[in-house]
From TrEMBL:
The keyword Transferase does not apply. This is Methionine aminopeptidase. One of its GO terms (biological process) is proteolysis. It is an enzyme of class 3 (hydrolase). A divalent metal cation 2 binds at residues 111, 174, 207, 239. CDD domains: MetAP1. One of its GO terms (molecular function) is metal ion binding.
Amino acid sequence: MVEIKTDAALDAMREAGRVVARALAAVREAAGVGVSLRELDEAARTVLAEAGAGSPFLGYRPSFAPAAFPAVICTSVNDAVSHGIPTGYRLRDGDLVSIDCGARLDGWTGDAAITFTVGTPRPGDLDLIDATRQALDAGIAAARVGSRIGDISHAVGTVARRAGCGMPADFGGHGIGRRMHEDPHVPNRGRPGRGFPLRHGLVLAIEPMLMAGGKDTYRTDADGWTLRTTDGSRAAHIEHTVAITDQGPRILTLP
């Protein structure tokens, strides 16, 4: 069931989104050569605690997962596309890192992701990040009253394909509100003019996941969570929570 939010709910979700933005900024600032992924998770936990916010990630267990997620952020490095679990792995020069974070505040949820390089970027990584950001921007621009989910999907997929990138089948964006994952599903590819109609008060997490090798296939690690490219190519993941409004798309997870 798709829930349409009131304007008051959108304002409340904006506050949750601010917490997400602060947590991602803290993680980005803490990241560096020699820093462990668990230390990045601790940086995000500190921000959530200071804001009085909970984590929709911690303890989350969808049907595909063998165990509940044990952290407040996903840390996906290099060929990991998404859902990476923070471990004792220490960041190295040239690593490509995607961080996904959520926050629950006063009953409402925000969700966003960033991708960045550690130290000296490897060839192609900045182009991959730029293409992923452009895909997100295109998806947000298409998130307008009177359009449909397929218009967002088509916009994201067009940019990704133009950049020669693959996208993991079965994974994409989603509705969001009182829960992190709500209807409707927002694929990262699709046909314009198709799917659920966009109305004022609909809130979506739009999240391109681009794989530099150009393939759409992925594999899942033994942890049951981490998605990796099948060809070992690098991946990037950037996301915002976006409200559809009569005044245009409103990004709720900006700083």
